[in-house]
Structure formats: C-alpha cells, structure tokens
Amino acid sequence: MALELDFDICISECCDKLQFCDNTCVFDPNAPVNCQDGYGSIGNPTLSQIGSTLFNWILPDGTTFNNVNPLFLQGLSASYSLQITGGVSGNIAIAINSTYIGTTFFMTDLAGTASNLVTSINSLGLGTGWFAYIDTTDPTLTTIVIYNGSVGTAYNNMSVLVDTDGTMTTSWLVTDLTANGRDGSNCFDVELTDLYSATQNPCQLTNYPNFTDGVYTITYIVFNTDGLEVNRKTKKFFIDCNAKKCLKTLIKTLLDDSCGCSEPDPRIVMLRSKLDAANTQFEECLYDCAQETIESVNKQCRNFCLDCD
Question: Is residue 53, in this structure, part of any structural domain at all?
Fold first, then answer.
C-alpha cells in the first residue's frame, strides 16, 4: 500500500508566518482501522524510517522555489523492543527507570503471553506514560514494542528491567536502555526568509514581511533513511489574510466615529462580497479567477478613501 501523504497550512494573524502541518495518519497497532494508508501501515515506512523532507513552492506571482529543505522531521517517542523467547510457565514483569509498567503470566503460548503483556502495559499507560503493541513484522508475534506517550528525547537512555520466573525467557539484557526518541512535532513555521535565497532578498518585496494573498501551490516530498523518495503530495492553498486585515481596519475606522459615519459604507460591503467570491472561486478550482479577484480586492482596499476630513 502506498503512503498517502496529507498536510495543511494556516497563516498567522499578522500574515507574516505560515504554519505547515503533516496530517498524514500514523498507524496505531491498537486501533488499526483508524489508519489504513499512513506511516507504519502495511507496506509503508514508519516515521522513524523517514530520513528527510523537501518542499516545492509556487507563490501567487509565479515565483518558484524547488527543493526547499527546512530540516523538518516529525518528533518520535522513545521506545524499547522486547521478545519473549521461550517458556511454558511463569511470570514477566517490566519496569522502566524504576517505574513498574506491566506484568503478565504465561497463557496458552508465547504469542498469547505477549498479547497479555501488551494489555497489561496499556491498562497502566495513563499512569506510567508507557504503552505497547505487538510488532507484526515478527511472524511469531512474540515481539513487543514499548513506547512513551510523549514525543522527544527526554525518555531516551532510561534503564529497562525485565524480571521473569518459572521457565520464561526474553531477549532483555541488563544493559538495555530506551532509545529512538526525537524532538519535534508534526508542524513547523515558514517565513519569507526561509524561501528566498541570499540572492533573492525578500526585504525588497513591497509586501515584506507578509505573505502575499492568493493561490499557493506546495509539494511535500518525503524520503526514507536511504535517501530514496517515498512519495510526494501537491496541494493548493488560498490566502486572504491581507485583504481581511485591510477590511477590518476600514471597518474599525468607521466604528470609532472618526469619520462621522453612522451607516455601513456600501463600498466595504462590496469588497467583502468580492472577498467571499474569491474564496468560492478557489473552492470551485477556478484558481486564475480567484487570483484575479483577490488582487482586485487588495488593490481597492489599499486605495480606499473613507472621505474623512
């Protein structure tokens, strides 16, 4: 199954910063129905197997930036893998950094015992912060992945203790530590200086530091740890932040009575209608029309005269 990427962007109230968020679903072995084509689904790489990302941007005026590298990788949780390797009787108890996280006894077979241990860990998860699932890449279904509910490096390098009795054996070693946690989230902020190179000074733009209103095309590309492209996704977004700010300023000027106006200015109503029309055109995939309309709204709003003497 191919990885189906999804992402979104939103713009700050000041129109000078975009936030990109990777909304691709992440496979949860404890609730597999919730993600059929995301990270970690059958045949797809896990988040830990994504080694780098790149972005292609097309701005409303046609300016293109290819292979932009913001060094973006999503955060990961610290984890530890344990395999139940043998036994026909006995108990298993696990502690991480001296915190007891779960226990079980031999039940039917090793796979059943592993499943029961996962259930025990997850039942205590809200209190301990540690959760678990069966690693389905192990055909014996006897390998358990234990992970922390918080993303980041804070839970790396914590000592793992596995206590067994009876005939139970595991892959645990006395020196084992938690690992693989990585700081970060699924979002990052973008400013114009992140797109323009040293030879293309964004400060020379008339709208700097604000992003121009209009239609943006963004391509999100992910690569595995071997540097091979996994998949890419292209989406269009419509930004009308500057037009909204301009209209709010006009309305505020009217409301503070500095112009002595008691009735809504029909020209502002018209501009508001044009802004709505631009959004409708974008939603209907009339991208050129939406671009022309939003440019017209911004031009009229900038040159708007309230006839205040």
Answer: yes
